[in-house]
Amino acid sequence: MSDAAFWGIAAFMVASGLLVVFSESLFRSAFFLALAFAGFGMLYFMLGAPLVGAIQILIYAGAVTMLLMFVIMLTRQDGQERTGLVGRLRSLTLFKVFAGALCAALLFALVSQLSAVRWRTAEAVPGYDASAAAAQPGISE
């Protein structure tokens, strides 16, 4: 049940994040951002940190997102035309292509470095006793 709930919340958060990026309306993007923040709060509740989860939902999903929505509504500019994803792709400049290539290169370097690290498990730590760790309440492997 816990794994299914985690993957469900994770899929909900990824979908909300994608809708933030690809939404045509700024107001809708702010709403989907609030949903993503609420997803983070749900994950905190699952991790056993209800205070942090409640703060995440109240402060970020509530207050910060409402402030963002008020800013969007008060600074509305009628002269701007709405362009969707296709319009944004047509307006690619050399700088944007260079920035995208740089981001891809940095992501490749980060992933290659992280995959080359030999991660230590609990069994590899000197003095680790699996039976003593299993006997302690709240610790699971």
Notable traits:
flat; 141 residues; mainly alpha
How would you sum up this structure, described in words?
With about 140 residues, the protein is an all-alpha fold. About 70% of the residues lie in helices and about 0% in strands. It has helices at about 1-20, 25-45, 50-75, 85-90, 95-115, 130-135. Helix 2 packs antiparallel against helix 3 (about 50-75). The radius of gyration is 22 Å and the shape is flat. The chain starts with a helix and ends in a 6-residue tail after the last helix. The model has no long low-confidence stretch (mean pLDDT about 80).
Overview in brief:
By secondary structure, the chain is an all-alpha fold.
Oligomeric nature of the chains: single chain
Main sheet specs: none
Mean pLDDT: 81
Shape: flat
| Beta-strand proportion | under 5%
Distance between the termini: 17 Å
Topology:
Elements: H1 2-22, H2 26-46, H3 50-74, H4 85-90, H5 94-116, H6 130-135
Helix pairs in contact: 1-2, 2-3
